[in-house]
Design goal:
Blueprint: H1 5-17, H2 22-32, H3 34-54, H4 59-87, H5 93-121, H6 125-142
Length: about 150
């Protein structure tokens, strides 16, 4: 959008700064449950990412919504591993750690790969639309987590 590398770095840094809310998500999860936070985080991040796609012509406003989306995604970063740990029996955790590690490594390369294909045919806005829609689908899937979680 014509802004320099410093402006981009500031947005990325502000998004990463949202990780400081991780402890707050942990406290909130103790009060309302992990399931609600995970569903809400997916829903919030999905909606905010779709808003970014709509505001693509206004870079400053889009950046603000990206940072808000990062705040929502922090809930997934803070609590997402709990769903895995509770799904596995305690005696299986050591063996399943390899599965979880593989999942994380594959997820690191899947996004950029999908985005590269999208950007081959569509404008940048399509990446935000795709990401937002996938996050909303994940919110729907997260509704199947146990209520006691």
């Amino acid at each position: 959008a014509g802004y320099g590398a410093t402006a981009s770095a500031a947005v990325v840094s502000a998004g990463n700064a949202m990780l400081f809310f991780s402890m707050a998500y942990g406290r909130l999860a103790r009060r309302v449950g992990v399931r609600r936070i995970v569903v809400g985080a997916y829903l919030g991040a999905g909606v905010l990412t779709l808003v970014v796609a709509l505001l693509a012509d206004n870079a400053l406003l889009a950046a603000a919504f990206l940072i808000l989306g990062a705040a929502a995604a922090t809930g997934l970063d803070a609590l997402g591993g709990i769903t895995f740990l509770r799904a596995v029996h305690p005696y299986e955790r050591a063996e399943m750690a390899t599965v979880y590690s593989t999942y994380r490594q594959i997820s690191d390369i899947t996004g950029p790969m999908v985005f590269a294909v999208i950007l081959t045919f569509l404008p940048l806005r399509a990446v935000f639309v795709t990401t937002g829609l996938v996050l909303l689908v994940m919110a729907r899937i997260a509704l199947h987590l146990p209520r006691r979680l």
